[in-house]
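Notebook B, p. 112. Complex prediction, attempt 2.
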Amino acid sequence: MDLAFLIVIAFGLAPLAAWLGGRSSALVALVPLALALCFLAIVPPVASGAAVSTAYSWIPSLGVAAAFRADGLSLLFALLITGIGTAVFLYASLYLKKYPRLPRFYAVLTLFMAAMLGAVLADDLLLLVVFWELTSLTSFLLIGFSPEQAMSRRAAQQGLLVTVGGGLAMLAGVILLGQITGSYSLSGLIARKDEVAAHALAPTIICLLAAGAFAKSAQSPLHPWLANAMVAPTPVSAFLHSATMVKLGVYLLARLSPVFEGHATWVLLLTGFGGLTMLVGAVLALRESDLKRVLAYSTIISLGTLVLMIGIPGELSAMAIVTFLVVHALYKACLFLVAGIIDQQTGTRDSSALGGLRQAMPLTALAALAGSLSMAGLPPFIGFAAKELVYETGLAASASGLVVGIALLANIAMVVVACILSLRCFAGPRVETPKTPHDPGLAMLAGPLVLAALGLVFGLAPWLVSDALILPAAAAIAGRPIDYTLSLWHGFTPMLLLSVVTLALGIAVFRNGTGIRLRLAMVEAIPRWGPDRAYDRLIQGLQQLAAWQTRMIQSGSLRTYTGYTVAVAALAGLSALISQGGMAWPDFAASRQPELVIAALLAASTFAVLRARNFVAGIAAAGLVGFAVALLFLFQGAPDLAFTQFSVEALSIVILLAIIGRLPFRDSDYRRRGERLRDGAIALAAGIMATLVMLSVLAQPFDARISDFFRAESLPQAHGRNLVNVIIVDFRALDTLGEITVLGLAAIAAAAVIAGLRRATAGDAR
Amino acid sequence: MNSLILLTSSRIVLPVAMLFSVYVLLRGHNEPGGGFVGGLIAAAGIAVHSLPRGRSALLRLLKVSPKTLIGAGLALALLSGLPGLLLAEPYLKHQWAFPGGLPLSTTLIFDIGVYLSVVGAVLTFLAYYLEE
Amino acid sequence: MEPVFALAFGVLVAASTYLIMSRNVLRIVLGLLVLGNAANLSIFLAGRMGTRTPPLVPEGATTLVGGANPLPQALILTAIVISFALIAFTVILFESAHRRFGTLDTEALRDAEPKPGPKPAPAAAAAPVAGDVPAAETVR
């Protein structure tokens, strides 16, 4: 199957999705489902080790190709995107029923899905950047789904600025990589990994690429945008901001892992920021009561875990990454959708105002319980296997105490979040809510139930996903084939002990949850000094800087602009002449010719323009200047120019004199004496510069090659004897075409000004 | 400008100027002249005719808006380059034919385009200043 | 002979820039008129002067030997017409401004960019600090 074709189709499905989704039809879920089936079809060949690829020439001169490649890792992502996409599309058809901007919502959601597919399947780094930015853009549109709300606008802008800013750093890293390898091919890059990793620029490249990935995957301190993005409708949070888009940074890091594996900068950066993110996410999750934001912080913990794991070299970590990735996508999407159901049915999302919902909405409770058990890492759910793998990797890593300690804290927070989503909301005595809840329709329940069931099925039968999906993906991350048997039960190991400790501590924290939450919420340093506030300060500072700079440069005074322009031109010309030794002193002796009279006429008429007391005299004097120039043309072998100049002078005088009746032509210069002196000095400098530059030009020997070409070729090639006309209409006809376009545009622009004036002073002229 | 002298003399000036402008345009390829000068002369002739008569007289004389002349001129100039393109030569490479010794070429079409653009542009400006 | 015209060129430039910096828009128009001529003169000078023969291939010959430099002439010819259009447009712009605002003083013509007041209202202050406050769901 041609991957490029699939992606084009995915983009092309947007109108169909907009039409179906706009009518709140559940059939809209067929769009991602069809794509998911296409990707399922290429699972067998990819699992057997043969990557599917396509390449089209795009910008060959820059070494950029429209190349796509599906290996284990790419295919796993593609299946997650389209599979969870199916659940989300179906869910939203009921959740956002009758919402006015629904067609646009589905169009953007489909475009997002297509861009995600493009990003994970691209085998060209620049192509990856293009799709990467497209996902940022569509995410911006989806976060800002309710643009009339200030919070929504701010969150959309923050998400865009952070992810696109990171994307810019990433682009720089990609270009550096391209400079080293000479092409932007991803598979080519991985084939030459030793050379790249040993290059002197490798640390810089790692930092730049990591900056892009960290921004996208909400690593601390760039994490606030993800929590704020929860203003988006819940399907968007489930799809973009937990299961897929935020994993794109993880994808990039995992994709490049074979190249930089074990590189000191890579390990330090990834483990450092990954661990920090886990801790920050854990603390923030514990002080939060809003269901969606709790889930968002647990997503941040998970993203930190994934980044940390990528920083640890080895095959075990590759297994841990892929398993955790799949598990997280399944349960997190499920729990987000459940949170959306709770929110819609009860009218609140505040976990402290919820409880005992199990009888009112039993099916939702079931989905929530299954998702939470997978999240908490309890057997027989596959979440258990993932957690064990994370602990195993941590125990095997260098500095294992620190890694395991952080992982323990993070997993405790995960258990607490899982308890909030299940026990807090559904168990215990019934708490009154603004609305009376029921189980929602099948369209909204199907997604969470299926996702939760998959967590159980994969846990009971890991071989279903292990050989076909997880092992090939892990092999792509490790850069070599992996032999590992994914199983639930490992016997009595240190990991099992850690799991028991995690669960016990997690439940203990949950039981004292309210106290801990309130105490943490009292810490004012978090909102006051946190990165979210820093973002606001930065944006505010940027606007102040822009205002200051505008005040400095854009004074709004026309003559200040012209004054600066003329002064800079004069000074630049003079300094260049003096520093480059371009000054030339001419010989005036050969100048005694009749044309000197014309030069005198020019100077005299120019002086008359300056001295003109009114506009009529000024125009007459300026006409005299033009007349003198026309005379020069006439006596110096340029009859064409002389005729043109005379005609233009005549027309100018007609037009300029016509406006005299409409303007107060006796008006003064308005300039004060000091201003006149200053402007005079600037003008004098400009005049001196002009003369000196012209003298130095004239001192150069004349290169007549171009002119001689026209002299020789005019008649043979263009059948014309008047060289000037031949140049205008034939040799440089394209220039002339441009010039008559300018002429026409000036006239039409003038007509537009007049039309605007007529409207402004309605009934005046015409 | 309601001058009787201008009103009377312009009746003769207009046809003479138009004839002269076409003559200048046509001879331009071999003698001083061409589309720019020709267009300016024609515009000046029309200006002299319209000054004493007003804007509506100008529009009556032209039959079309001056802006249309700009568009027509630009279109002619653009089209004159197409034959070169069709004959697999660079755009605006002019083509010549000499049926019976009469020199015909896309060069002339291009120059007529220049002529019309100049006339149109100048008259667009002028139309604003003409009194009604 | 060119050096003398180089001096004249300097005079034209000085005069026209002085006029362009004026506060009176009509003086700016005069400055533009002179500046257009200065530009044409500079191109003409740079292509050298010195012959009175126009660049026309004589009857019977196929190439021209000597004669004035045709290239600057072609450049100037279009430039003359363009500077005419520029000035005509400027005049229309200024006249329309005069009709609306009743002034020819450029310092008074600043409707689009008013003089900076005491201090413009800080636009950034409007951005709310969402911080870690629970965000209100926009769609239920």
